[in-house]
Design brief:
The chain has helices at residues 3-26, 29-51, 57-78, 83-99, 119-141, 157-176, 183-202, 204-208, 216-230, 241-254, 258-281, 289-296, 312-331, 338-341, 345-361, 363-380, 384-406, 416-419. With 425 residues, the protein is mainly α. Helix 13 (312-331) runs parallel beside helix 16 and helix 15 runs antiparallel to helix 16 (363-380). The longest helix has 24 residues, at 3-26.
Length: 425
């Protein structure tokens, strides 16, 4: 096996051992940050090489976070989240990938494309970085510590000027970029700036409100703090376990404050998953990569207020949105495409894993997510039995939700004749 394919495994082992030593003895935030980032990206690359057809690092890292979320929620539901349990959760994927790594296929065209951008390309890229950082600095310099009707009204005018120039620099960056931009360069010069723009909006409350924003996050942070300190909280909550487990494990890995990890989780997750997932979902409808990324950035026209504060409902909604994007990508495949037939099971199972993670976080989004994925894949199948099964799921799930919506506050039973009666005028 090629040394390039073996190296991430051993890097993940070394970084995991140092990470465990730091959690148990050293307690250094700097060492924790370095080792946690190294471990996440190396094990993400190993996941990508093991479970996907090509080296899709985004899906590998996402799959690892989903594993942490589902495994942590399940084990906490049955036991606790003490340090030895967290060590076992982190060590399991390393052991499995070391023992059962499959040989992955290499792309037939390995010759790197010639990359010769003009000076305008670098000019607009540096200009975007400059004005983005300047707008971010303006947000940091104007914290909100009193009641306001809207945070947008409290921002100075120069923020809007800097934001507008950053958006124009981002647009002209695409116009000046060559068409033969390699994939890794495209991620650096196109996808990364788009994700940074999304963070400028999703991280607004995180930056402007130094004491926190909303009410629900304080309750969840207190619960996560108790689990972080004692491994369990009693009475044990059976909702929201996915978020609690993920935040606690990340705080242990990075040796960071639990409140900081909680506040950063959803804005960063939304910023670095929405645009790349939509870009991936549109790849069979829009073949030009530049047009596809610009189309994906139209997501900024949609209000992102759902993702400004970390709550279980919002995190579960994010996973539900990723499921919709991935299922849309399955629908956009050309008929009788050989690549679709040769896809690994990881691509097909990713929406199911996202649905289980959403269910582990919040049932209000998780149950519809599981039903949606089941119905989607049943109707996507060419087998008559699968379509009949999907129709039955659709029928019974629709009836259950209809009955739930018909329930009133003080009623314990419900009559079907009352439920399906015509409305009174």
């Amino acid at each position: 096996m090629n040394i390039k394919h073996i190296q991430p495994k051993y890097l993940s082992v070394v970084s995991l051992l140092i990470l465990i030593l730091n959690i148990q003895i050293v307690h250094s935030p700097i060492l924790g940050f370095v080792c946690a980032v190294l471990y996440i990206f190396t094990i993400g690359r190993v996941f990508a090489q093991t479970f996907f057809q090509h080296d899709k690092r985004l899906w590998g890292v996402l799959l690892f976070f989903l594993y942490m979320l589902i495994a942590g929620a399940g084990i906490y539901f049955l036991w606790n989240l003490s340090n030895p349990v967290i060590f076992g959760i982190l060590a399991l994927p390393v052991a499995v990938t070391l023992l059962f790594t499959r040989k992955h296929s290499i792309a037939p065209n390995t010759t790197p494309l010639k990359f010769q951008p003009s000076w305008r390309f670098y000019f607009f890229f540096v200009g975007f970085l400059f004005f983005f950082l300047a707008a971010l600095l303006v947000l940091i310099e104007h914290p909100i510590i009193e009641a306001v009707r809207s945070p947008w009204l409290a921002l100075p005018h120069r923020f809007w000027i800097l934001l507008l120039i950053a958006l124009f620099s981002f647009f002209f960056l695409f116009m000046a970029s060559p068409k033969n931009l390699p994939q890794r360069k495209r991620i650096l010069f196109h996808l990364a700036p788009a994700c940074m723009l999304v963070f400028l909006f999703t991280g607004l409350a995180l930056i402007l409100y130094p004491y926190g924003f909303g009410f629900d996050p304080f309750v969840h942070q207190a619960t996560e703090k108790a689990i972080f300190d004692h491994g369990v909280i009693t009475p044990k909550p059976y909702y929201y376990l996915g978020q609690y487990a993920l935040v606690v494990m990340l705080a242990k890995m990075f040796q960071a404050n639990i409140v900081t990890v909680d506040r950063l989780l959803l804005p960063l997750a939304a910023s670095f998953t929405l645009i790349p997932t939509m870009y991936y979902a549109l790849k069979h409808m829009i073949h030009d990569a530049r047009t596809r990324i610009l189309t994906s950035t139209l997501l900024l026209a949609w209000p992102l207020t759902f993702f400004i504060t970390t709550t279980p409902q919002a995190l579960s909604n994010l996973l539900l949105l990723l499921i919709i994007f991935l299922c849309f990508e399955q629908l956009s495949w050309p008929p009788h495409n050989l690549d679709l037939q040769n896809r690994t099971n990881a691509y097909k199972l990713l929406p199911f894993i996202l649905a289980l993670a959403s269910l582990a976080i919040h049932p209000l989004s998780g149950i519809p997510a599981v039903l949606f994925v089941l119905i989607f894949f049943c109707f996507s199948s060419q087998r008559l039995l699968s379509r009949i099964f999907g129709a039955l799921i659709l029928f019974f799930s629709s009836g259950i939700f209809l009955m739930l919506f018909g329930l009133k506050k003080n009623t314990t039973t419900i009559s079907l004749s009352t439920l399906f009666a015509p409305p009174r005028i």
